[in-house]
Amino acid sequence: MSADRQAPAERPLLEMRDVARFFDVSPPWYQRLFGGGSRRVLRAVDGVDLDLPRGRTLSLVGESGCGKSTLARLAVGLYPLSRGSIRFDGMEMSVRDGSFAERRTRRRIQMIFQDPFASLNPRWRVARIIGEPIRVHEPGTGEAERRSRVRELLEMVGLDADAAARYPHQFSGGQRQRISIARALAARPDLLICDEPTSALDVSVQAQILNLMRELQEELGLTYLFISHDLSAVRFISDYVGVMYLGRLVEWGEAETLFRNPRHPYTRKLLESVPNLAEPGRARTPIAGEVPSPLSPPPGCHFNPRCPLAMAKCRTDTPGMVRTGPGGVRCFAVEEETATA
Ligand SMILES: Nc1ncnc2c1ncn2[C@@H]1O[C@H](COP(=O)(O)OP(=O)(O)OP(=O)(O)O)[C@@H](O)[C@H]1O
Ligand SMILES: [Mg+2]
């Protein structure tokens, strides 16, 4: 891992540059040998630039299959990069040397998943589930100290101390998600990556978990990368929002600005497609057309076949990111509009 020089206070905690991840989804070689198809590469994430400031929440939104989870997994180091770089607190994360420094840095990034039941070991008591990261990352910790830290973590996530003696199946979905959060916090992370953490929960429970996340952020100075299809949850929790379409970031900006004044035609369609709680009577318009296959995305701007503003060059050229205040948008129509304004 290599750190470079810049005052840590002003530097974003997570810096992604031209991040890409391709999957080889070719049929097996013997099938190809006998004429059964050719090599195929799926570009799940293709050239994303994003910064995540410390102590803030950045959410990723976009239709299913646009690459949100893949980007999250890249950030946590679950997949190697196909191109680009990810820096966490100035450290290049693609360098894997197995060193103590590397392990210490990776510990500072933890992930929370959609389904807490699948991610918690059903045969372990909660004390062991939450105690395990402490045992791994702070091996010098004694038994009594570990137990007291588990109690402290349970309290932090709003569970009683007697939860420690029970098994995951003895809890409700919301309580299980609290246990997952306590387990993530046991590693003393700076960055929590939350991939649809509330999608499997009842609406009333979702709000409680989101409130808990906000309280913990305030208390511990945590930074969140949050992924959700629920745009009201995204609006509630985010400082910044990034909109993805077929592996590319098409717009990003401050959450309130993006929700009030979406610039990219895709962002506009995405926001129009959700029911508006403030105006329940208003008809919502689903986005016309299907997301094209990421195996053969349309040339030019990937959104051009579904875009009401598409021009000739949108079908051949890829727009660059144009800055809009603190954010940016990748669209030729917006670029022209900005140039003539
Ligand atoms: N391990 C993998 N091997 C092959 N293809 C993959 C793999 N993981 C993801 N993909 C593909 O990459 C694309 C992006 O998937 P990803 O799961 O990142 O999307 P997503 O935005 O998280 O979608 P959702 O909203 O449904 O969770 C999809 O076309 C998916 O099929
Ligand atoms: Mg996903």
Automatic annotation (TrEMBL):
Keywords: ATP-binding, Nucleotide-binding, Transport. InterPro entries: AAA+_ATPase, ABC_transp_ATP-bind, ABC_transporter-like_ATP-bd, ABC_transporter-like_CS, Oligopep_ABC_C, P-loop_NTPase. SUPFAM superfamilies: P-loop containing nucleoside triphosphate hydrolases. It is a peripheral membrane protein. The keyword Nucleotide-binding applies. Residues 14-271 form the ABC transporter domain. Pfam families: ABC_tran, oligo_HPY. Belongs to the ABC transporter superfamily. This is Dipeptide ABC transporter ATP-binding protein. It comes from Paralimibaculum aggregatum.
